[in-house]
Design goal:
The chain is an alpha/beta fold. About 35% of the residues lie in helices and about 30% in strands.
């Protein structure tokens, strides 16, 4: 394999068109060689805009392309499992949109398949690759706020299209799997631990998928994480880490920084008002695809393993069950 990774994309989903395809095009170590869609005309239009060499009217044809080393899968949640398995069987490395699967059982299946195939598999939590997120992680590890005790993480946005796939149960809809996955991901990463119990309340929409969730994850050592997610409430994209000696707060662009020089705020007992710290910016999607491509060609190891995705799904499963059954759910 050359130093340039050949990418294929399955579908013309919005997240791919607006974020990941441009990121691949701007990356230093990859090029988009093929795109497939159920609509050949739509795929052709996308290919013309992004100078993609080969266009296919099916996903199978992308997987059969020998020039494709890795595929990006931004399909609806219910299709992540089958198409990730097919891609791995075809010998492709896989970058799959979050959530990796519909539950921990499915996530375990695809993680095992990746190991058996000897191929890389990464869930596309792009926010973790931004320098600001890495800086927060570093500050916690250095003890800048003492011992981290409480994490608050929220991602909310309002959808006005009742036909949106996030409202369709047959496609794996529901805000917990969508936005809630970010909040759970942050809690686990910043605590560097797995939750031992979950509690939650949820509001369910007309199609019976969850549209508003407020939950709590309990961690050993007397630590808690507050989880908030909604697609019927206006924008809220924040997280805070509160420690025994201070706190770190991120503003409304916590997950996808909007500024060239994003800011985090550090508060301590000696400075309760806090001080801003500016961190160099970067396109989170480009940073993610470049990291993945570096791992594909052997320049580095994946920062996050499929086992991390399985653990994230276990926590999401526990929150979903706690909300449905109105009880505290223990994680073994």
């Amino acid at each position: 394999m050359s130093d340039q990774v050949g990418w294929g994309v399955l579908s013309t989903a919005k997240i791919g068109l607006e974020k990941v395809i441009p990121a691949i095009g701007a990356s230093r170590n990859g090029e988009l060689r093929a795109i497939g869609s159920r609509s050949l005309s739509r795929a052709t239009s996308v290919a013309e805009r992004h100078s993609v060499a080969r266009v296919y009217g099916s996903y199978e044809e992308v997987l059969g392309d020998d020039g494709v080393d890795a595929v990006y899968i931004p399909l609806p949640n219910s299709l992540h499992l089958p198409w990730t398995l097919r891609a791995l069987e075809a010998g492709k490395h896989v970058l799959c949109e979050k959530p990796l699967a519909l539950d921990a059982g499915e996530a375990t299946t695809v993680a095992s398949a990746a190991e058996a195939a000897g191929r890389l598999l990464l869930e596309a939590f792009m926010w973790r690759f931004h320098p600001r997120a890495r800086r927060v992680k570093q500050l916690i590890a250095e003890g800048a706020i003492g011992d981290a005790r409480l994490i608050r993480a929220a991602l909310c946005f309002a959808l006005d299209d009742p036909a949106d796939i996030r409202f369709q149960p047959e496609l794996g809809g529901g805000v917990l799997l969508d936005a809630g996955a970010y909040a759970v991901n942050a809690a686990r990463w910043f605590f560097d631990a797995e939750p031992v119990a979950a509690q939650a309340e949820a509001v369910y929409g007309p199609t019976e998928v969850d549209v508003l969730v407020a939950g709590a994850l309990c961690f050993e050592g007397g630590r808690l994480a507050s989880i908030e997610a909604s697609n019927i409430a206006q924008w809220q994209g924040t997280f805070s880490i509160v420690g025994t000696e201070g706190a770190i707060d991120l503003p409304a662009d916590a997950w996808i920084p909007l500024d060239a020089e994003p800011v985090l705020h550090i508060r301590t007992m000696a400075d309760k008002a806090g001080r801003p710290e500016v961190v160099p910016g970067g396109d989170v999607y480009q940073l993610m695809v470049e990291h993945f491509a570096d791992a594909v060609v052997g320049r580095t190891s994946l920062a996050f393993s499929p086992a991390d995705s399985v653990a994230n799904m276990r926590a999401l499963d526990a929150l979903a069950r706690a909300a449905r059954e109105q009880r505290r759910v223990e994680l073994g």
